[in-house]
Design a protein that fits this description.
Blueprint: E1 29-34, H1 39-50, E2 54-59, H2 62-74, E3 80-85, H3 91-102, E4 106-112, H4 127-154, E5 160-165, H5 178-197, E6 202-209, H6 215-228, H7 232-240, H8 252-263, E7 274-277
Parallel strand pairs: 1-2, 1-4, 2-3, 4-5, 5-6, 6-7
Helix pairs in contact: 1-2, 1-8, 3-4, 4-5, 6-7
């Protein structure tokens, strides 16, 4: 089934990006972005480079990272982008990407964006899929925080932030997504722990959103439409956005901008908290 045009991931443009005047955003300042080969991670890599930072993009998809590098370059940014192919289930790879980032300048920011999904009931959920999902979405962010915090504390002015991609599923639960829901709740706990131990200098924050129109989501919409005998528009409006009050999906750039703001000096008091931009999923009901 071909995608409905308005449900295809939008092309990223300069007008989509939040660009801030910020003394912390310089090419000497380094940010790690996981999941940088596509979707939200790609948009954030572009946004941070446009804001003048050096961005180290980590992803298992090496070819996708090269596409991100080309996209970043097309924006003629003040910052730069480096690809570091990384298997987030490999502890050595996780440490290596932090070490590589620290060699490029003052490591100040980490964005744990990489994620995955598997849908099954708890009784039927494959344990190997649970282990893979939690390795990528819980263990890897913990290790990245473990290895990055000393670098952040020792470089530049000793300040920075570690940000975690949470979700409405970090606030509530739906059926058949137990591993994903567990992971997002765990990331919220990690966020608070970073804030507790960061002394106000290394901040932790999370970002929670609903459905985002990424390439992966576009495929999921088409698959759901085919399996349920619905149109793609019906899947989005009735199945995905049914509980929400804002009846449009977010774009990767809109999510990336939340991280840009969170990393900036405008967000000094965002520490341990969650930026909840969910269109009313978790705050309203009928």
């Amino acid at each position: 089934m071909s995608s409905t045009p308005e449900l295809e991931p939008p092309e990223l443009t300069a007008d989509d990006l939040l660009v801030l005047e910020d003394l912390a955003f310089t090419p000497d300042t380094v940010a790690i972005v996981t999941g940088a080969a596509s979707g939200i991670g790609e948009a954030l890599a572009v946004a941070l480079a446009v804001n003048g930072l050096t961005v180290v993009g980590a992803d298992i998809d090496g070819a996708g990272l090269e596409e991100t590098a080309a996209t970043v370059e097309s924006f003629d940014p003040e910052g730069r982008f480096l690809s570091v192919p990384t298997d987030l289930t490999d502890d050595g790879d996780v440490k290596a990407v932090v070490d590589a980032a620290a060699e490029e300048g003052d490591l100040a920011f980490v964005a744990n964006i990489a994620g995955m999904q598997h849908i099954d009931s708890i009784a039927e959920f494959p344990v190997e899929q649970y282990d893979l999902l939690t390795s990528v979405m819980i263990r890897a962010p913990f290790l990245l925080s473990k290895y990055a915090m000393p670098h952040i504390e020792e470089s530049g002015d000793g300040t920075g932030a570690i940000a975690n991609m949470s979700s409405v599923h970090g606030h509530y639960a739906t059926q058949d997504k137990a591993a994903y829901i567990t992971a997002k709740h765990a990331l919220n706990g990690l966020t608070k722990s970073i804030a507790a131990e960061g002394g106000g200098d290394v901040r932790g924050f999370s970002v929670s959103v609903g459905y985002v129109l990424t390439p992966l989501m576009a495929d999921q919409i088409a698959d759901t439409a085919a399996s349920r005998g619905l149109s793609e528009t019906e899947v989005v409006e009735d199945v995905m956005l049914g509980p929400a009050r804002t009846k449009t999906m977010m774009t990767p750039a809109e999510v990336a901008n939340l991280f840009v703001f969170g990393f900036s000096t405008h967000a000094t008091h965002l520490n341990g908290g969650d930026l909840l931009f969910d269109g009313g999923y978790t705050t309203t009901y009928e």
